[in-house]
């Protein structure tokens, strides 16, 4: 019900409008280009690249925010612009720290007669992206291990914490190193440059003044405070009940660490930011306590004795249950906020990743259920022992063979022996077979054999270790999917971008050049090669005009027997819609093509140059609302 009633909102920036409008023809050259986004954006030194009709870059001023509004970007243009079509490529950084880019076009006076491929900006450097993603994943792993190990040591209080020291130190150093790498790679990640740009002084200065850079600096500061806290904690006597001050300090550090993520990612932008930030912090802390605690538990199981585990494991089981509850509530809210609709669950990359994470978490919870069963079995012998010990009667010395109260015995049967006996009553919680066995005369102490000396604990330890190992492996997969989710455009933002933003990875097109090659000739007037210049106006939902002009191999106009154009929208299974072009003397035209939906359409152009020679070429065109 929550997903169905969601209203459009954004957790990534989406382009809301452009001035001049995309695909428009203006009579006077504009003095500036202004973009308006759905949320605040950060500007780069090269946020705008403007190309003229001759495909050369136009000199522009520095990018800035328009009228002091952080959700806008503006760049000044030269005073005199030639007639023709101009392409504007842009790249900014959204409030959740992810760079976004796109392109659009406008024309001055009239549209250019030719269309060419234009370099609309730097491509994403694969090495920079790979290193950045790897550092982010390591940061998530290290943070979870750091928070979970400390929480396990403080709340579960294992008798021997020596197995936890090495992973704790490794987690701290890994988080420190990955944070430094993220700080250095921030500038090339934003601009799409190679890793070598990380050492550019001006780029580093820009990073340190940006919100993502400040969040990473804050993380380094929290890590230093965490190191001081851990050193002080190491001097405590073990095991020992943590004081309220120690618990408060540990909780504050965990929350501060989680805030360095929440302040620079999806939760910091979009709707309900305060609630989203709180939910994100709780989600990250609960993830660390549960998943990082699993690793600490696995290491403890390998070293601790059965008696020690009977105290530690049930404590962690209760903590894990609370963590899973928090994760379920906050995860549901964040899913609603990120998706926006049920269709986005299967129709967007974000939704499909969320489904994959849900499957992985389900497997994780099932493994946790098996762990709880082994936990109950491991804790049972200690409970039975305590119950049996509490019901043992006090030893009462009396002669062997002495008559019970109210009974008469023969004098010769009375023997002056000082051996004592015990009378053991069966425990109320024990099974009948256990009660009978506990009362056997051969039991010198009267305690149940099944619970003496920790018998049966080895099997429970092995079973618990296997199930926890499965949990740890699945947890690593969950964190990997989480890393991918945080860098994926949320469903809400994708829906809003499709509805409001006319520009994106594939900008709307009003002039399409369709090269063709039939492989044959038609005499001296037309070879088998050429191109069709197709004008689609206005490339928006509703009635559109289509004009097609055929050029031969020598770039001269030629006459062909037939030109046919159809439109298909594969994502919505619409089409093919025949444009029904007519020859109007020198070119083919129609003014009544109805394209009912926005999206990326496939335009198929068929050119017949003779009775036997024809070819069909497909092109992608964007139709906007």
Automatic annotation (TrEMBL):
Residues 311-390 form the Copper resistance protein D domain. It is a multi-pass membrane protein. Residues 1-27, 394-462 are annotated as: Disordered. Keywords: Cell membrane, Copper, Membrane, Metal-binding, Periplasm, Signal, Transmembrane, Transmembrane helix. Residues 423-439 have a biased composition (Low complexity). It is found in: Cell membrane; Periplasm. One of its GO terms (cellular component) is plasma membrane. One of its GO terms (molecular function) is copper ion binding. Its main location: membrane. The chain crosses the membrane at residues 137-156, 168-185, 214-233, 245-264, 276-300, 312-333, 353-370, 468-489. Belongs to the CopC family. This is Protein YobA.
């Amino acid at each position: 019900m929550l997903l169905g009633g969601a209203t459009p909102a954004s957790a990534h920036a989406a382009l809301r409008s452009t001035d001049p409008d995309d695909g428009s023809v203006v009579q006077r050259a504009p003095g500036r280009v202004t973009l308006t986004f759905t949320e605040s954006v950060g500007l780069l030194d090269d946020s705008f690249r403007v190309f003229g009709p001759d495909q050369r870059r136009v000199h522009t001023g520095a990018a800035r925010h328009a009228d002091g509004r952080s959700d806008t970007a503006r760049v000044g243009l030269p005073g005199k612009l030639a007639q023709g079509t101009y392409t504007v490529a842009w790249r900014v950084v959204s409030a959740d720290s992810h760079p976004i880019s796109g392109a659009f076009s406008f024309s001055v006076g009239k549209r250019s007669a030719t269309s060419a491929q234009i370099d609309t900006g730097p491509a994403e450097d694969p090495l920079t992206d790979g290193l950045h993603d790897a550092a982010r994943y390591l940061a998530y792993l290290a943070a979870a291990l750091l928070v979970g190990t400390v929480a396990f040591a403080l709340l579960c209080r294992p008798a021997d914490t020596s197995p936890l020291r090495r992973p704790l130190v490794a987690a701290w150093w890994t988080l420190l190193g990955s944070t430094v790498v993220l700080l250095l790679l921030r500038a090339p990640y934003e601009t799409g440059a190679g890793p070598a740009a990380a050492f550019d002084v001006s780029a580093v200065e820009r990073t340190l003044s940006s919100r993502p850079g400040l969040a990473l600096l804050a993380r380094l500061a929290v890590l230093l405070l965490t190191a001081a806290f851990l050193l002080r904690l190491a001097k405590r006597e073990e095991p020992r009940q943590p004081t309220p001050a120690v618990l408060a300090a540990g909780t504050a550090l965990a929350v501060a660490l989680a805030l360095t993520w929440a302040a620079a990612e999806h939760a910091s932008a979009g709707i309900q930011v305060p609630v989203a930030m709180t939910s994100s912090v709780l989600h990250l802390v609960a993830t660390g306590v549960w998943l990082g605690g699993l690793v600490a538990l696995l290491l403890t199981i390998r070293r601790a004795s059965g008696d020690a585990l009977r105290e530690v494991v049930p404590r962690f089981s209760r903590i894990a249950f609370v963590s899973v509850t928090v994760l379920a509530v906050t995860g549901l809210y964040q899913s609603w906020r990120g998706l926006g609709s049920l269709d986005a669950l299967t129709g967007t990359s974000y939704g499909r990743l969320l489904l994959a994470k849900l499957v992985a978490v389900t497997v994780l919870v099932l493994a946790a259920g098996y762990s709880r069963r082994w936990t109950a079995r491991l804790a049972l012998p200690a409970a039975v022992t305590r119950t049996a010990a509490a019901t043992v009667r006090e030893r009462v010395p009396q002669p062997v063979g002495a008559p019970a109260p109210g009974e008469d015995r023969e004098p010769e049967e009375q023997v002056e022996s000082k051996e004592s006996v015990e009378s053991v009553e069966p425990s109320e919680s024990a099974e009948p077979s256990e009660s009978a066995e506990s009362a056997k005369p051969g039991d010198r102490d009267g305690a149940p054999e099944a619970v003496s000396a920790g018998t049966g604990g080895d099997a429970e330890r092995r079973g618990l270790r296997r199930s926890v190992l499965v949990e740890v492996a699945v947890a690593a997969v969950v964190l990997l999917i989480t890393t991918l989710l945080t860098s994926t455009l949320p469903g809400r933002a994708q829906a809003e971008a499709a509805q409001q933003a006319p520009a994106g990875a594939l900008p709307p097109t009003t002039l399409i050049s369709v090269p063709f090659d039939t492989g044959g000739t038609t005499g001296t007037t037309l070879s088998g090669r050429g191109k069709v210049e197709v004008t689609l106006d206005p490339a928006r939902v509703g009635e559109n005009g289509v004009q097609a002009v055929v050029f031969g191999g020598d770039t001269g106009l030629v006459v062909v027997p037939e030109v046919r154009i159809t439109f298909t929208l594969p994502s919505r299974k619409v089409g093919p819609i025949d444009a029904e072009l007519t020859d109007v003397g020198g070119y083919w035209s129609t003014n009544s093509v109805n394209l009912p939906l926005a999206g990326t359409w496939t335009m198929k152009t068929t050119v017949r140059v003779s009775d036997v020679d024809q070819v069909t070429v497909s092109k992608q065109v964007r139709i906007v609302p």
